[in-house]
Each structure stands twice: as C-alpha cells, then as structure tokens.
Write a structure and sequence with these properties.
By secondary structure, the protein is of the alpha+beta class. It is 26% helix and 25% strand. It is built from 10 helices and 19 strands. The protein has helices spanning 65-74, 104-110, 112-122, 125-130, 134-138, 152-167, 175-180, 193-196, 234-241, 312-325; strands spanning 12-17, 20-25, 30-32, 47-48, 51-52, 58-60, 63-64, 83-86, 99-102, 170-171, 204-206, 212-215, 221-222, 247-251, 261-270, 275-281, 287-295, 300-309, 333-334. The strands form 5 sheets. Strands 11-12-18-17-16-15-14-13 form an 8-stranded mixed β-sheet, with helices on both faces. A 4-stranded antiparallel β-sheet has the order 1-2-3-4, covered by helices on one side. Strands 5-6-7 form a 3-stranded antiparallel β-sheet. α2 (104-110) packs across α3. The longest helix has 16 residues, at 152-167. The relative contact order is 0.09.
Amino acid sequence: MTAVDVNDFGQEKQCIYNGERYSVRENGAVFRHQPEGKRARPNDNKWTFGKVGDKGYLYIAGVQVHRIVATAFHGDPHDPKYVVDHIDSNRSNNRPENLRWLTRLENALKNPATRKKIEYLCGSIEAFLENPSMLNELQGEPNLKWMRTVTPEEAKNCKQRMDIWASKESRGSTDETIRKSSFGERVYKPLQKWEVGLDGEPGLELSLTPWCAQYMWRAEARFPSCPQDFGTDPLNDYFQNLKVGAVLAIIDSDFDDICPKLKVLEFVILKDNRLILVISERPDNKWSIIGIELDEKSKHFIHFKLGTYSSKSEADEAFCIKKESIDSWSDGYSGLDDPTL
C-alpha cells in the first residue's frame, strides 16, 4: 500500500460549503479555516483527508469530504439534491477528476460500475426504475476494505480496472460475488498483459495450443487434452479426451524453471453439452475449478477459472454447488476474483 501525503499536491483552491471556509487540494485533502474572531475548533487549521465514516465515505467534523472537494473544483451543484459520483467506485478517492455532480438517477445509470451492480442485483435497469428501494434490500453489506485514499497512479490503475470489470460479461457471477466485489490491493496495481486481453476483449488471450484461448490467466498455457481437430461436436470431443490424472494445462511461467501442470481430478459436461467443468490439482497443493466452453464465433475453446481452494474438500463442495447452479448462469466468460496462474 502506498502512503499518500496531504502535502503532495499540484493545485489548491478555496470554497465556501455550508457556511464554512475550506482550502482544498487536488489530492483530496481539505483544510477547514478557523472562523474569524472565534476560537479554533478541534478540526480547524489542519490538512486532512478526513476520517472513514458511514459506508466508506470520508468525513471532516461530520461533513462529507467529497462534497467539499466537488464544490471547490466543480462549483456548486445545480440542485442541493445532487449527489457526488465517485467515478471509480472508490468512495475514499476524492481527487477532483474522480468526482462529478449527478442526480441520483444519473448516478445509477451513467456510472458503468454502478449500472452493472444494479443489473446484477435487480435483474435489469427497468426493474430498478420501477422499484428503486429494492436495491437497498438486495445489496447487503458492501465490501469497503479496498477503498482508500490513493496516489494519481493508483487512481488511474483503479479506474482502468473498474472500466474493464464494468465492460466485460461474466459467467458464474452471483449476487454474493457482486456484493463482496473482492478487488483488494490488486485493483491499484498496473494492468498486466493477461488482464488487458486481445482485440478489445478484456482478459481474453490465445493460448499456446491451437483452437484454445484463456480468460484472465496470469501466463500463457498449453492444453494437452484439447482435440487436435475441430470436428462436428468439438466440446464433446474435448470431454472424451479428459482422463483422471491427465494434464489439463501446462503453465508457461517466467517465474519457474519447470512449467507447472494442472492435473484432472474430476470432470463433468453440463448445460446441454455446452460447458465442461473440471477440478484440477495444482503443483502448489491447491485445487482449482476450471470451466471450458466452446466459442462458436471464434471457434476456440475458452478456458476460465471459477475458484481456487486450499483443500480438496473445499474444492469438492464448490464443485457440487457449481454443478447445481450452473444452468442459471448467464452467457459470457467467468469473472475470476484473483487469478493465481
């Protein structure tokens, strides 16, 4: 984690907000001035990013810092009912470029990340508009741990990752996944090749095996069990090639002299022969669940990860749950919280 200094800034402005005079820096820090002719209060005359309060927002003496920063750099809102949209969804990133005044409806519809969460939780934007209160009932406890004050570089990285997350379709994502949204510190790191993907498809890359592609893998992989020919029923041909103990994937890693291998432990074909699900044993004494699907348009087998577990029993339990729920999944590639290969 990078420590952000209140004195590391490039621009400073002043504003009046709710009758108080503030100096505001473009790093999101604020300075509440002592009222003229009056005694200084505990929060006067010092620079601060604020203290974390309700729902992860930063406050100074009970006032939301993001509204102060937005007023200083973007002017007063057209209407007092306007809210401040944190564009990258990080409620503790109060840099001016991350803030904008919007109506509550615009905040829900114009922010891609917010819109995606609403679509997952409510089923559709239309359902949300018919009954906006349903969002409060469905979203549960949001994950706020990843939100914090950030440097300009971290803000840029976070915005890029949020844009990718909001733009991609995901297979196997559940309401619980969206609610917890486990970004962690990784969200602030620069994008890697495997995260950017090919031809504008975030996270999707061709693998080292013909007919194969991989989604959100850290390194290129070979898939020895993939059919050598693209027949009339390719996915079933792939399924027939799988054997317990066979190598599912060989990871071409720059960090290991020996290419790590994922071995097949259990496998099943689901969704009317449209999806293969595999439990694989990893060389680091962990177990991963891998999904394999045929992309008809590109005529490639897409390999995506659905979870990594520290024990075989955890993997078995997750495998059973996924088999039962998989028919209700929407189309698209799997969103992996934290790929490890």
